[in-house]
Amino acid sequence: MKLIDDTWPMPVLLGVLSFAGLAAGIFGDGAWDALCWIGLGVPIAVTAYWLWQHWRLRTASAKE
Questions:
Q1: Is residue 1 over pLDDT 60?
Q2: Any transmembrane segments, and where (predicted)?
Q3: Distances in Å between the alpha carbon of 8 and those of 2, 16, 35?
Q4: Per-residue model confidence as pLDDT tens digits over 27-48
Q5: Which of 43, 56, 61, 63 has the least C-beta neighbours within 10 A?
Q6: Quick check: helix, strand or coil at residue 2?
Q7: What is the DSSP letter of 55?
Q8: Does residue 20 lie in a domain region?
Q9: Does the pLDDT at position 51 exceed 90?
């Protein structure tokens, strides 16, 4: 069961953040809009960071 424990926590967390951001954007104004931006921005930032690291390592290994 170690593989499941290692695989699922981050996607579930990003999914919950996305859902919370969407809900905040739908149900409120003012401070809720800021929560919406945070809730939807964090998953995008994490994905962009992961892709950047992956591409950087891939190009570094291709040059060798």
A1: no
A2: 12-28, 34-52
A3: 11, 12, 24
A4: 989 999 999 999 999 999 999 9
A5: 63
A6: helix
A7: H
A8: yes
A9: yes
Q: Per the domain annotation, does 2 fall within a domain?
A: no
pLDDT tier at 7 (50, 70, 90 boundaries)? Answer: confident
- Number of structural domains (the chain) is 1
Q: Which two tokens stand for residue 58?
A: 């891939």
Report the pLDDT value the prediction gives residue 3, as an integer from 0 to 100: 64
Provide the domain limits for residue 31.
9-63
* Exposure of 44 in the CB half-sphere (CA atoms within 13 A): 7
The overall average pLDDT reported for the chain is 89
For residue 3, is it within any domain?
Answer: no
Residue 30 token pair: 């003012």
Tokens of 37: 């931006």
On whether residue 1 sits in a domain, the answer given is: no
